[in-house]
């Protein structure tokens, strides 16, 4: 495919990774344990018993990975900082060796002419804080702000773009309600408290970053385009509940300074009289942002369904009377996610229509596909499905820009094949293949396609 979509001058084209998924060195240089160390080492929770102990060994191989980024021609690289590498116990003494690692990485990027973009929390909560309640309790939000201030003091002069949280939906609902992510809890009110305290932590971190004088501050949300299975009243009502749980629980407090209108319909007694909310929280959460990060992969088709748990006292926060429905005749990625590029355009246009001038400029901080790619006889990786996915989604993104959505950047997920959370190493999202036995990196056809697209957009 050579018909590369063209983006406005100054549009940022980058690549993204996350600390626990690539760094390895889990017990080196003073790093403390995270909830993902605990979770992945618990038998039966991660495919094949995989862990992030070594992952892509990026901690030792970062110069090689920065060289791949330089050859790719990206304007920016989005990485995340491991909280337990900086403050091993979540609070208290700061680990200088952890700060030095990220300082070396940032300097390597700047030398290569690549703008660093740092995410402060990509799910690796220090285990010591989880032992004290994790995101269920407000103390964790307060400790997050302290950690943010430490990192910003040391890197804020060289890192222009900062993201407070990555996908708080996953941290709260997959982690504290579904139990499929660390810490593996299955709770109702506890998961809603975690969601709220993540937002409080975001607000406190914004204040800390502003105090440090950094250039750009934002948050990354994995927003879903929720579609009804039919046009029945029941399915349309299910979409409202799905939107509330996936999207509005974040966008309403952050962008509009209010809680979702349908939250009681969605969560019932779990949210009624929520004692984890305090006066002033909405003002804290809704501070102005320089950008909104959006991670997008697929639409979700939902239909009405009864509660899975009939006893309200035992109900988890994701038991919201809807079920996901497969789209017939639509290609799915290796994750089982439908490929519908037009829904990417629709999501962004709807977001702009909903929030108008309250919507800050948008950066697509993740987009990509897991595919069952493997080396050919010559060692090359011909990931044609991923190339098509990227081409079609970047074209859909250009359509959203043409429709008036202020999108300033795009980061492909991911630079490297990596530890894909509960899927272990079974799912490969990278545009660079990683042989986990040898740590050899092999750029795929998608890497070359993306490099050519970036070059075409340089004029």
TrEMBL record:
Which Pfam family is one of those matched by this entry? Answer: Glyco_hydro_1
Family membership, please give it: Belongs to the glycosyl hydrolase 1 family.
User: What are the protein's UniProt keywords?
Assistant: Carbohydrate metabolism, Cellulose degradation, Glycosidase, Hydrolase, Polysaccharide degradation
> What GO molecular functions are on record for this protein?
beta-galactosidase activity
**Under which main EC class is this enzyme filed?**
hydrolase
What's the protein called, per UniProt? Beta-glucosidase
What is the organism of origin for this protein? Streptomyces olivaceus
Q: Which InterPro entries match?
A: GH (IPR017853), Glyco_hydro_1 (IPR001360), Glyco_hydro_1_beta-glucosidase (IPR017736)
Q: Which reaction does it catalyse?
A: Hydrolysis of terminal, non-reducing beta-D-glucosyl residues with release of beta-D-glucose
Q: Which PANTHER family match?
A: GLYCOSYL HYDROLASE, LP05116P
Q: Which E.C. number(s) belong to this protein?
A: 3.2.1.21
